[in-house]
Amino acid sequence: MENSRKEIASLIVSKLNSNKENLKKQFSIRKKSIGYFYLDDLLPEDVSLKIHENFPSIEEAELKKDLREYKYIAYKMNAYHSLLEEVTYAFQEDEVVRLISEICQIKEAIPDSSLYAGGLSLMKKENFLNPHLDNSHDKDRNLWRVLNLLFYVTPDWKIENGGNLELWPNGLNNTPIVVESKFNRLVVMATHQKSWHSVNKVQVDSIRCCISNYYFSKVPLLRDDKFHVTSFRARNSKGMKDVFLRMDNFFRNNLRKIFKNGIKENPHQYKQ
Q1: pTM of structure
Q2: 1 or 247: which carries more pLDDT confidence?
Q3: Where in the chain are the domains?
Q4: DSSP readout, 246-272?
Q5: Can you tell me whether residue 23 is helix, strand or coil?
Q6: Under CATH, domain 5-258 is a member of which superfamily?
Q7: Which residues, at least 6 apart from 42, have a Cβ–Cβ distance to it below 8 Å?
């Protein structure tokens, strides 16, 4: 097998189809808060191991470090092993998009070939991602962001390692749902103005690797959704850190209302 995007997409489609009814139930029972589902053993183990083996190093990635987040990103796909571009875009193949849309009851989901805020992420010890809402739109503000796809590929990752997805359906002052960043696991979650999520701090000297994609739509998931930039909060909504992050959200949000595409173009996109 050459591991082309079409071949990988075929494997994903087969796995989704064989688990479709269970995945629909997973997403449906959580839909009123933060809809999500997860699917283990997405690809044959040897394929996922090969993906991990060819991930770029920390040195090849771009560091993002501030009060909001501390992680590494890699989105210039033609600079890495070709397999990484193939698997990333396999999630954008028509039948994969159609099936995931059906499972999540979304009409006409649209993948993002520019990988705006998507691509590869790497998190080492002490890395984290504070509670946040994803940007509500695509880079041109023509489409609503509706689904976040996360495919984890670090072998033998354990929940106690940290670096796990957290969902906050009951608000930031309550205990989050922790979704383990398990090897060969696909997580698909809804994104809207109530879908607060985060990644807890990595606790071990290892690197958690993830491939992410976003799907968009002409209509938002929630009827009352409004435009917002990626908005961060502090854990438990307390302290000066939370005050600062709220102010930061306010200023960046209003700036984007004045300048539709921002003062400068967001570099986190793949220009093929």
Answers
A1: 0.94
A2: 247
A3: 5-258
A4: HHHHHHHHHHHHHSTT-SS--S-S---
A5: helix
A6: q2cbj1_9rhob like domain (2.60.120.620)
A7: 11, 12, 15, 48, 151, 184, 185, 186
